[in-house]
Amino acid sequence: MRPCDISGLTLDGIDWENEEIRIVQNKTDVPLVLPLIAVIGNAIYDYITSERPESEGQHLFLGTNKPHDPIGLNAVWHVASKVYDAALIRLAEGTSRTI
């Protein structure tokens, strides 16, 4: 998933019953269905029930500061970059990071 797809993910895009994540890709406008594996589903559930700010908004990932707007793709990129660094993932020279 691209950062813009992650930042645009909505609560109704998580199909718990069928264990799927459903989105329309931002860049291509093509529908995409991904498996919702247990480890990802558990992390999303924990985020929703323990960390996600209360909001009437449907975006899954929200900023921590009021009015709790949806996170932007730059925030997703920043977090992913920290994960790449912490995992010591290196890229060949001349290639770019994708998440």
Explain the overall architecture.
The structure is a single chain. The protein is an alpha+beta fold and 99 residues long. The chain has one domain (3-86): Intergrase catalytic core (hpI Integrase, Chain A). The chain has 3 helices and 3 strands.
Q: What share of the residues lie within helices? A: 25-40%
Supply the number of helical segments.
3
Give the terminus-to-terminus CA distance: 7 Å
CATH class, named Mainly Alpha
CATH level-four homologous superfamily name:
Intergrase catalytic core
Biggest beta-sheet profile: 3 strands, antiparallel
- Percent of residues in β-strands: 5-15%
Shape call: globular
Q: Structural class of the helices, strands and pairings?
A: alpha+beta
Number of domains: 1
Give the mean pLDDT.
89
User: Which segments are poorly predicted (pLDDT under 50) over 5 or more consecutive residues?
Assistant: none
Order of H and E elements: HEEEHH
Radius of gyration: 14 Å
- Strands in their spatial order, largest beta sheet: 1-2-3
> Any idea what the CATH architecture is?
Orthogonal Bundle
CATH topology: hpI Integrase, Chain A
- Total beta strand runs: 3
